[in-house]
Design brief:
Helix content: 55-70%
Shape: globular
CATH class: Mainly Alpha
CATH topology: Non-ribosomal Peptide Synthetase Peptidyl Carrier Protein, Chain A
Number of domains: 1
CATH superfamily: ACP-like
Distance between the termini: 12 Å
CATH architecture: Orthogonal Bundle
Radius of gyration: 11 Å
């Protein structure tokens, strides 16, 4: 498990109520995340990692694992 994975999983847990690590490989659309929470999560990720991932870019990440791979 990478530090990036731990950090993304922590944000997913606190902001999206996703605590099961297997959900990192699930399609984001299947996780029941609404658009307001998704934007809050994206802002938190950008703050945590010093990135500037746009909502359009984020839509291309079908799983949280894909986001983790992008950040690694």
């Amino acid at each position: 498990m990478s530090s990036v994975e731990d950090r993304v999983a922590g944000l997913a847990n606190s902001l999206l109520n996703i605590s099961d690590r297997s959900a990192l490989d699930s399609d984001v659309g299947d996780l029941g995340v609404n658009s307001v929470d998704a934007i809050a999560f994206l802002k938190a990720v950008n703050g945590e990692f010093g990135t500037n991932i746009s909502a359009d870019q984020a839509a291309g990440f079908k799983t949280l694992r894909a986001l983790i791979n992008h950040l690694s």
